[in-house]
Design brief:
The chain is α+β, with helices and mostly antiparallel strands. It has helices spanning 11-20, 27-37; strands at 2-5, 43-49, 55-62, 74-79, 82-88, 91-94. A hairpin with a 5-residue loop joins strand 2 and strand 3.
Length: 95
């Protein structure tokens, strides 16, 4: 298993995993989204790749401005059947 930057051809695997996690997604929508965020310097998107062509999970990190946060950032991690999100370094929730 390895961690690498997302590629547009990962759209199919990301859409399949998203659906397995209860977030149905169409491949073309995922492909368009990936095309947009990979061009945006405020976003980073990485995948866990099993080395034989399957995506095991992903993390999407982006900078955002939040009124009450001195260090604005947010990330979402999708892996297996767990979804974790945080909007501050000291606040983590498991959904």
């Amino acid at each position: 298993m390895g961690i690498r930057s997302v590629r547009l051809d990962d759209a199919l695997h990301i859409a399949e995993l998203s659906s397995q996690l209860g977030y149905p997604a169409e491949v073309e929508h995922v492909r368009i989204f990936l095309g947009q965020i990979t061009q945006d310097v405020a976003h980073s998107f990485f995948v866990a790749d099993d080395g034989i062509g399957s995506i095991l999970g992903w993390i999407h990190v982006f900078k955002t401005k939040i009124l009450l946060s001195k260090k604005p950032r947010e990330f979402t991690l999708y892996y297996s059947k767990f979804v974790m999100t945080t909007n501050r370094a000291n606040h983590l929730s498991l959904a």
